[in-house]
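ok so i was messing around last nite and threw this chain in just to see what happens. nothing serious, just curious
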Amino acid sequence: VPNPQFLALCTLASPFCELASVTRQLLSVSKLLLCYLVECVLSVMALSKKITHSEFYCPIFGYPKELPVSKLPSYEDVLKCFFLEHYNLAVETNNKLLNNNSFSQNSNIVAPKVKQLFDKSSIPTVSLYRIVQMINAYNNSYRGLMKSYKRDKEKDSFKKKVEEFKQKSLRLFDISACKCTITLDCNCRKAVDLCECPVSIV
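result:
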């Protein structure tokens, strides 16, 4: 038989036990509310740091840009297109830092676009895998140059280096399968479609 004093003590303690239970429930709800508020604040902060096109301005080549549609692309054109895909990915993920996976992803997006321009001109090309390699190699050269841009941009030697890089970037981004040199030694002065002078392929 329970001790009467013990029963009386339990009766007195019962409201306090209920209060403790309610307090625990309130604390649990408070934690959930706090987590929700933190998520809301982080979301607002993320939106307030919206990535803009101007953040991807390149001091050497300017703003990101799609490949030209009326001519075969230069190295500069391909690089600008790569910048554009980087920007699109950054907006999608709200993260402008480019890791190795996204770097490869962008190259794989740009490569078919480059190939399409050559296909449009009926020029046989190397494989997409090789085109991706070429894009990555040129991007590595660009990134190597930009590593010291802020530090050395006022130095004459670095300015010369940048100018040389810009000039070389105007070359055709040549992904054609045939690299032979075709020369025509014409002496007949006839119209092109009537010329019968020999053509040599080296």
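not much to say yet. The radius of gyration is 33 Å.
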